[in-house]
Amino acid sequence: MSVVCLQLQSDLDQEYQDKFRRLPVEIQEFVQDSSKAKLSDDGVHGNLVSSSTTEKLNHKASQSEDDMEEGSSEQVYDTPL
How far apart are CA 39 and CA 45, in angstroms? Predict the structure, then answer.
């Protein structure tokens, strides 16, 4: 029974890490889509905000991946499910 639980925990950890790695890209796409919608609504140029946000997200994602690689195999996530 414990082997099954460990496998399930491992699968959930892998799924969480995969989603966490994709999050910056999804946020970037959302910001770009929102900027495009705003541009078409009021004609304001939002490219600077989008690129600045993208750089911050990419930097944060690379830091998080480094943190995950340095951690032990047992990780604790501080996010509500």
Answer: 6
From CA 34, how far away is CA 15, in angstroms rounded? 27
Please state at what angle helix 2-42 crosses helix 47-70, rounded to 10 degrees.
170
pTM: 0.42
Q: State both tokens at 80.
A: 């509500």
How remote is the C-alpha of 5 from its chain's centroid? 26
Distance CA 20, CA 13 (A): 10
pLDDT number for residue 38? 81
Token output for 9: 């925990």
